[in-house]
Amino acid sequence: MKVLLHICCAPCAIYPVKEMRSNGMKVTGFFFNHNIHPYQEYRKRLDTVREYAEQIDLEVIYREEYRLEDFLCAVAANPGERCLYCYCSRLEAAAAAAAELGFDAYSSSLLYSRYQKHDAIRELGERIGAKYGVAFHYDDYRRGWREGIDISKRMGLYRQQYCGCIYSEKERYAPQPSR
Questions:
Q1: SS3 assignment, position 60
Q2: Is the pLDDT of residue 179 over 70?
Q3: Closest CA to 163 of 132, 128, 117
Q4: C-alpha gyration radius of the chain
Q5: Which residues fall within 8 angstroms of residue 51, CB to CB, at 6 or more apart?
Q6: What is the average per-residue pLDDT within 39-57?
Q7: Alpha-carbon distance 20 to 29, whole Å?
Q8: What is the predicted pLDDT for the residue at 111?
Q9: Before 38, cis peptide (omega within 30)?
Q10: Whole-number mean pLDDT of the chain?
Q11: Higher pLDDT residue, 35 or 138?
Q12: Cβ contact 123:136 at 8 Å
């Protein structure tokens, strides 16, 4: 089976790529993460995906679009729901590319993270896949959380400290008000 894997970042892709390959799938990466903030962080993640892909001989399709304004316009009125926009916009791009390029299925490395909303990703992935006529491959890669971290450290890959958007950066670094 040929699978197009949306890659949010290199460390999160390690375990899903390893598992898919060990299950006989032909994996191609797809980098589209237009919401990462600031731009220098976006570049670090993009460069790290390139480094990772080269180290493991992974073909990756890169959509190098930095559309911060689109992201902000879409979520500014309700930042608490921003993750759904991020999931939807990236899964939509991946599904469209998978259908156009003749892949059997598509998936996302977001399924590796313990911090993501798996039920929402799965539901959106299946709905969007049906729209484009391409299956959404779901697997709960959180079981490989520690293994992925260990491998990324051994590979010397840059490991980000927050999900990616301006709001998650604030949640990670801004002092929290006392209660």
A1: strand
A2: no
A3: 117
A4: 16
A5: 10, 157
A6: 96
A7: 12
A8: 97
A9: yes
A10: 94
A11: 138
A12: no
pLDDT at position 136 is 98
The crossing angle, in degrees rounded to 10, of helices 145-155 and 10-22 is 110
* The pLDDT of residue 178: 73
Name the pTM for this structure. Answer: 0.94
Domain boundaries, the chain: 2-173
List the structure tokens of 6: 């949306």
Residue 3: name the closest of 111, 89, 86 by CA.
111
Give the pair of three-digit tokens for residue 86.
Answer: 């991020």
Question: For residues 90 and 108, what is the distance between their CA atoms, to the nearest angstrom?
Answer: 9
Query: Topology of domain 2-173, per CATH?
Result: Rossmann fold (3.40.50)
Tokens of 163: 């999900």
Residue listed under structure tokens 């995906």: 49
Mean pLDDT on 88-109: 98
Interatomic CA distance for residues 169 and 164, integer angstroms = 7
How far, in Å, CA of 106 to CA of 97, rounded?
Answer: 9
Sign of the dihedral defined by the CA atoms of residues 58, 64, 125, 113, in that order: positive
Q: Kindly state the tokens that stand for 53.
A: 């892909």
Both tokens of residue 102?
């003749």
pLDDT score at 170: 86
